[in-house]
Amino acid sequence: MKIHVQIFCALFSLAIATKVDYSGHMVIRVVPQTEEQVKFLSTLESSSSIDFWTRSVAANRFTDIHVTPESYNRIARALLENGMNHKIHIANLGELEKEEQQSIALRRALFSNNKAIDVENYHTYEEIMAYLADLASTNPLVSTLVAGTSVEGREIVQATISSDRSANKPIAWFDCNIHAREWITAATCVWIIDTITTGYGTDAEITALVDQYDWKFVPVANPDGYVYSWTNDRMWRKNRAINIGASCVGVDLNRNFPSGFGGEGSSNLACSETHHGVSALSEPESQALQALIAADSARVKSAISMHSYSQLWLSSYSYKTALPVEYPEMLNAMKAGVDAIVATYGTPYEYGSTGTVLYIASGTTTDHYYENEGIVHSYTIELRDQGRYGFQLPASLIVPTATETWNGIKAYMNAI
Ligand SMILES: [Zn+2]
């Protein structure tokens, strides 16, 4: 009953908020051919408020840029002046958002189950928290911990699945949805939590993995941003920190960690989507993740940060192109994961260090967990898709995405 009241309240607040209208907004795709063009795109991102959805470090890999009806001509001209043509990749973001909302509503209407929530659908922050609380009170494997509170006072909750809490087993750790608009990441983590908790004792592989490891998840690492992406702005990425002396809100939490803080691939401009904040770990959300991982670092065998989109499994380093000394071992681990993902439905994935495969990004969780907490198996997984829907993956694709990802994680955990 309590859950239903919360769901109603969440939907009600959704209905009364004024949302950003993305009608006529587009996503354009460019493929840089030279080092200079790659460099130009990197500088453009960190020196402006232009919303890069993905960016390439290497020539011949795509970069997707969100443009408004007003900014389109200006950005297209700047690209052309630097020798780059573009293609219109998503013609109308507003239409995709409508489709997404319809897919969520359709699933809600059809859902009649005895579970607290439909783990095959997208859910608000309140619904996910209610689900975790329900699980902790009904399933002896599950406990929850409030790791801290967000800028706006929301709880940052970690769920632990353990068959023996006194055994101090090695830990498989996950942070999800640190970037607010990447809804598939929280949905995938919730689906995996459900799959592990229902599979323990009946599924031999899951039972063995739970007996071997404690599983810890922070399903919504950026609660304020996530709520805001439901109520006000579907494309919101950062947290909701007020930046003193600036009109723009928010810090990119995945640029707020100490490794390479403030360097390339992050911005000191408050209006940039990759704004790193005033200092490393300045944000309460980053502090909460840091406290969780530091408390357990001796036991954390694997730390995975879930992101979307691009279909990549990425290791350190993010903030430089140099490779970690354990890179051969990391490549084996990533290959095991990616092979199992590809074997599930044929979804193509690439893997390698962030700095050599994707782009230079400073102050990330993955580098911090690796470099400062000593966790060799620290990775970022960029889930589906490759830009057809971008961040607005239809609800019908949650199960296939989560299924292949979970297969990848199982194979990877068995390989490390
Ligand atoms: Zn992300």
From TrEMBL:
Cofactor(s) essential for the protein: Zn(2+)
Gene Ontology biological process? proteolysis
Q: Which residues form the Peptidase M14 domain?
A: 121-416
Active site as annotated: E382
What do the Gene Ontology cellular component annotations say?
extracellular space
Provide the leader sequence positions.
Answer: 1-17
Q: Which family does it belong to?
A: Belongs to the peptidase M14 family.
What is the protein name for this chain? Zinc carboxypeptidase A 1
Taxonomic lineage:
Eukaryota, Metazoa, Ecdysozoa, Arthropoda, Crustacea
